């Protein structure tokens, strides 16, 4: 056998012979005689012998091929080419090379006969700056366009290179008429390229001419080949053609290489990838990349802030992908799109990673994941013990006797992973769960903890290894056919055939039963399931708090794409341009600290319905609210008011914005904006829903300080008006209402049990209550028991007067009373018109609408000594109106409220049982259907209702309508803008109309009132937030003002005494002799109120 060294020598000799044979049989040896090879070698030698350090003397490989090879040089140019100076073909002519971007980019003949140029190059700083600037410009892109903005030829060249061709990176344009070194740059280009005019297009440092030359190359379809030829190794065509009108999928470019904003000016576009050398390589980016993932039917995927939540039959998984800059979308109902714009190669790869992660989540909640691990041991048997921790709920795996060790190896499985031993296979561990990450990580932890260390792994292979990966699928039934051994072979074959036939028949029957069971469950699930919209509407209708209602409303808007309507500021129902302009002006004034402009904007634009932003139509599109532009505007106005309130003021002597000027500004602005009152109308037992309305407004900070009530609404308004801010929330929960009067009446009725006319009217259901009230009407002439009502109201209110309640709660309480005489008793009772009247008597009198329903009620007041006596003004006419009182527009109670307290906006809570079925809240979308048929039906219903209302008013005007019906059917005109709230009542609630209130039913009616108010919260914020901020700012500034002179206050108090009221007005200090109207007096009332608060 030959030695190893001799074998190596023989192999080397054989390889040498093969290489020499290939060389001699090819044309490679003749390459050295070619001119191209010689010129290339000469250029390389010249590059090595250059004297200037750091400047490349030879051109790049692509440029040398262009200058030395006639097939790539002159053949590609026109005969009269003046775009670039001639490059010498031999070594006789002396040339000079200009270094651009760290390498030789231009080769021009050396000009020895121009000493001025040499002097200018050596001594002129401007020329040196131009050279430096030219070097930096040529680094920007392989294609540079030197042009002038006013030149039409320049515009033509830029249009062809920038619009018609898609080049990456884009050509860099230098406008010489706008550049600081425009003239020196143009002179330097003229010397280096031979072209003195613009445009001048350079490709890798070589000029290809101007606009006419570029247009001529484009018409001949030679521009692309010219760019590739001149660019050499730095210019490559990424895609030959791109046909926008091609129907073949293969003729189109991928979506990631398509720019949606690119203008398709030509039928065919060319895309080039132009790059510099390795040192200046341009990183490629894909304009748009997209991955799509279909969603199964039984899987729900929610994505919010890049947090993916997947729900399926097996449970719910959450994955946080906020660290990956991708965009999610829903192009179709059951498809998720994952997009990235202007992403690099790694970013595009991240798209597929995100798709795989979400796909694993979907598989986990539908099929689940299962890993099987086998025990492998050759020395000592491995014992595995599995226990579930009772506190954490996680499985703990203990591995004992590993390699005979006494040490117990423990590992805790990931959350959601179940670990168990295989019931059928010995020495097998089964890990299952919904999360692929949890199952695989648990398997890896078990395998890693059994890793053999410090031993030869070729001998010691003990451990637990993953043997199978799969899903948690339902395995079909299998039937084991017992083998029958018989001495007679024929009988055995027959028996086996019979068993096989029976097994096949059983399998077919089982398959049919399984399919039938599957479709049965599927049909039942489809029949019982609700659509996402129905589920969200159910959540809205049954919400217990406003936060639950708001969350469901946002989700429903997102499902119906109504959130896009809110984000779009444009609408024909309001002047969005005006609102947007004022919003920008307010923000600019606040940022610039321009107080004068900010104050002028506040005073000139504080109109409640500025630009029609309170239009009800804007609240009928989305469940969650109106346009976001309107919400932003209201927020900025409120912040501006807070900013003005918090400003540091100066004294009057300093001549700047002082405290008195700020106080007058807030007072006058609040006076101009107007005030809001909450009007609680009627209701019987439904009137308890008014408590829910007040509670919803109070929790959102929208409860007005002026509260007005009529009938049952007067009782609720009185209860609210006597409680302070701290007591109100406890009272609104139903804990502070005393209903013992009704309980005492019920016990008394059950104890007596004797009735002469109807012996069975002692029951407590609604039917017996109705019969009992009809009996009372027949026997006594009134419908409700005024004594019980008076006892209940007096137990809750006490003997407080209007003035005492105002001093206690700082809320303005108004109660309307219908009287029989026109000129005697006031029809509006408050702390101004009737300060000494007891509130409980006025509330009971407000319920006395006619003789046929109530017994007469007397109004009481307190005299000078504090004793309770009948009110003196009610001696001429009691509150039992025997006929309906006619009011003119100026005499109606609501008009009087507008005059006394500057009220120009009404929030009407309507709970009259005979009107609720025919009314609908102005902003409630829950019962509105989006179909056109329902819209037509609603319009017809509105037309019929308007016509009936008009005819009833005509009958009442001529006196043909009975008095009782006129009081019930004709509504009082609201003298100003208003928003109607109707409780969310069902048909079942009308069966409780004749039941007495108790603790259990009180919570029910309060929740009904809250649900009727929640849809209007957004609209009420638009209407009332500015008013509330103005009032709050005024109170804050008022408290900072120094206290007035006590003597002056005492003097005005002496002038304000009214002899017909019996006691002095202690809580206000103003004089009626001041030359001001009623509106001006309101400012004094509010200022005195602020003094009381402080």
TrEMBL record:
Residues 74-83, 108-128 have a biased composition (Basic and acidic residues). The keyword Cell wall biogenesis/degradation does not apply. Residues 678-875 form the PNPLA domain. GO terms for cellular component: membrane; ribonucleoprotein complex; ribosome. The keyword Glycoprotein does not apply. Belongs to the universal ribosomal protein uL6 family. Probable lipid hydrolase. This is PNPLA domain-containing protein.
């Amino acid at each position: 056998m030959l030695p190893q060294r001799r074998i190596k020598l023989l192999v080397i000799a054989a390889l040498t012979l093969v290489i020499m044979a290939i060389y001699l049989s090819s044309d490679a040896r003749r390459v050295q005689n070619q001119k191209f090879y010689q010129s290339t070698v000469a250029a390389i030698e010249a590059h090595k012998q250059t004297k200037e350090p750091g400047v490349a003397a030879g051109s790049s490989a692509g440029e040398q091929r262009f200058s030395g090879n006639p097939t790539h040089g002159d053949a590609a140019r026109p005969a009269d080419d003046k775009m670039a100076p001639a490059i010498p073909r031999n070594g006789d002519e002396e040339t000079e090379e200009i270094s651009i971007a760290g390498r030789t980019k231009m080769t021009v003949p050396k000009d020895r006969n121009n000493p001025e140029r040499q002097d200018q190059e050596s001594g002129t700083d401007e020329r040196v700056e131009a050279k430096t600037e030219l070097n930096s410009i040529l680094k920007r892109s392989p294609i540079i366009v030197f042009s002038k903005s006013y030149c039409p030829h320049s515009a033509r060249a830029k249009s062809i290179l920038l619009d018609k061709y898609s080049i990456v990176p884009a050509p860099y344009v230098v406008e010489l008429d706008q550049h600081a070194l425009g003239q020196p740059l143009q002179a330097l280009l003229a010397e280096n390229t031979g072209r003195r005019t613009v445009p001048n297009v350079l490709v890798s440092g070589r000029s290809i001419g101007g606009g006419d030359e570029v247009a001529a190359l484009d018409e001949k379809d030679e521009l692309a080949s010219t760019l590739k030829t001149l660019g050499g190794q730095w210019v490559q065509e990424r895609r030959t053609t791109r046909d926008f009108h091609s129907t073949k999928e293969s003729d189109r470019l991928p979506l990631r290489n398509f720019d949606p904003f690119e203008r398709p000016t030509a039928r065919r576009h060319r895309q080039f990838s132009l790059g510099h050398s390795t040192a200046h390589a341009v990183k490629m980016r894909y304009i748009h990349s997209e991955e799509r993932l279909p969603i199964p039917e039984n899987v729900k995927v929610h994505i919010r802030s890049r947090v993916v939540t997947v729900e399926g039959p097996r449970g719910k998984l959450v994955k946080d992908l906020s660290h990956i800059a991708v965009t999610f979308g829903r192009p179709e109902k059951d498809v998720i799109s994952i997009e990235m714009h202007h992403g690099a190669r790694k970013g595009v790869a991240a798209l597929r990673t995100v798709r795989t992660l979400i796909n694993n989540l979907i598989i986990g909640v539908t099929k689940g994941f299962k890993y099987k691990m086998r025990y492998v041991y050759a020395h000592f048997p491995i014992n595995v013990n599995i226990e579930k921790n009772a506190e954490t709920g996680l499985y703990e795996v203990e591995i004992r006797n590993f390699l005979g060790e006494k040490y117990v190896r423990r590992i805790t499985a990931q959350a959601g992973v179940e670990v168990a031993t295989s019931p059928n296979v010995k020495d097998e561990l089964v890990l299952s769960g919904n999360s692929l990450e949890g199952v695989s990580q648990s398997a890896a932890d078990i395998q890693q903890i059994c890793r053999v260390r410090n031993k030869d792994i070729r001998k010691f292979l003990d451990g637990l290894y993953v043997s199978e990966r799969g899903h948690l699928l339902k395995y079909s039934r299998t039937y084991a056919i017992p083998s029958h051994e018989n001495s007679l072979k024929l009988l055995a074959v027959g028996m086996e055939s019979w068993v096989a036939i029976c097994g096949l028949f059983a399998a077919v029957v089982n398959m049919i039963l399984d399919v039938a069971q599957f479709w049965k469950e599927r049909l039942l699930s489809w029949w019982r399931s609700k659509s996402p919209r129905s589920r969200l509407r159910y959540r809205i209708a049954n919400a217990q708090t406003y936060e639950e209602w708001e969350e469901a409303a946002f989700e429903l808007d997102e499902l119906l794409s109504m959130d896009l309507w809110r984000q779009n500021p444009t609408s024909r129902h309001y002047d969005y341009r005006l609102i947007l302009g004022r919003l920008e002006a307010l923000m600019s004034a606040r940022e610039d600290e321009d107080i004068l402009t900010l104050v002028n904007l506040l005073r000139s634009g504080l109109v409640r319905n500025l630009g029609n932003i309170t239009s009800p139509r804007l609240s009928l599109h989305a469940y969650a609210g109106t346009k976001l532009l309107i919400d932003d505007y209201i927020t900025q106005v409120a912040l501006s008011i807070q900013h003005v309130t918090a400003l540091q003021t100066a004294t009057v002597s300093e001549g700047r914005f002082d405290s008195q000027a700020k106080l007058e500004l807030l007072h006058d602005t609040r006076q101009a904006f107007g005030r809001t009152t909450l009007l609680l109308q009627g209701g019987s037992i439904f009137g308890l829903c008014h408590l829910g309305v007040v509670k919803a407004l109070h929790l959102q900070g929208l409860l007005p300080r002026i509260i007005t009530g009529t009938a049952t609404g007067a009782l609720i308004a009185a209860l609210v008006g006597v409680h302070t801010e701290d007591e109100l929330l406890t009272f609104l929960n139903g804990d502070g209402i005393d209903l013992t009067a009704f309980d005492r009446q019920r016990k008394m009725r059950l104890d007596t049990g004797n009735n002469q006319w109807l012996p069975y009217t002692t029951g407590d259901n609604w039917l017996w209550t109705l019969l009992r009230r009809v009996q009372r009407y027949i026997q006594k002439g009134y419908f409700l028991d005024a004594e019980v009502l008076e006892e209940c109201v007096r137990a809750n209110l006490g003997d407080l007067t209007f003035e005492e309640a105002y001093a206690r709660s700082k809320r303005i309480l108004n109660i309307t009373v219908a009287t029989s005489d026109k000129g005697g008793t006031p029809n509006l009772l408050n702390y101004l018109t009737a300060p000494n009247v007891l509130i409980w008597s006025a509330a009971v009198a407000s319920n006395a609408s006619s003789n046929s329903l109530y017994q007469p009620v007397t109004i009481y007041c307190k005299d000078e000594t504090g004793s309770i006596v009948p009110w003196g003004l009610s001696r001429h006419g009691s509150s039992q109106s025997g006929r309906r009182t006619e009011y003119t527009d100026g005499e109606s109670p609501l008009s009087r409220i507008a005059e006394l307290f500057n009220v120009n906006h009404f929030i009407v809570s309507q709970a009259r049982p005979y009107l609720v079925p025919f009314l609908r809240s102005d902003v409630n979308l829950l019962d509105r259907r989006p179909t056109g048929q329902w819209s037509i039906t609603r319009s017809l219903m509105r037309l019929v209702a308007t016509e009936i209302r008009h005819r009833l008013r005509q009958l009442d005007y001529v006196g043909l309508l009975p008095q009782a019906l006129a009081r019930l059917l004709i509504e009082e005109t609201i003298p100003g803008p208003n928003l109607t709230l109707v409780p969310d009542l069902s048909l079942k609630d009308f069966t409780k109309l004749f039941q007495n209130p108790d603790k259990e039913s009180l919570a029910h009616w309060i929740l009904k009132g809250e649900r009727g108010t929640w849809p209007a919260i957004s609209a009420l914020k638009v209407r009332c937030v500015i008013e509330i901020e103005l009032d709050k700012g005024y109170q804050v500034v008022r408290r900072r003002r120094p206290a007035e002179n006590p003597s002056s206050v005492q003097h005005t108090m002496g002038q304000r005494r009214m002899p017909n009221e019996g006691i002095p007005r202690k809580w206000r200090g103003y004089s009626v002799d001041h030359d001001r109207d009623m509106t001006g007096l309101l400012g004094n009332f509010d200022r005195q109120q602020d003094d009381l608060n402080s």
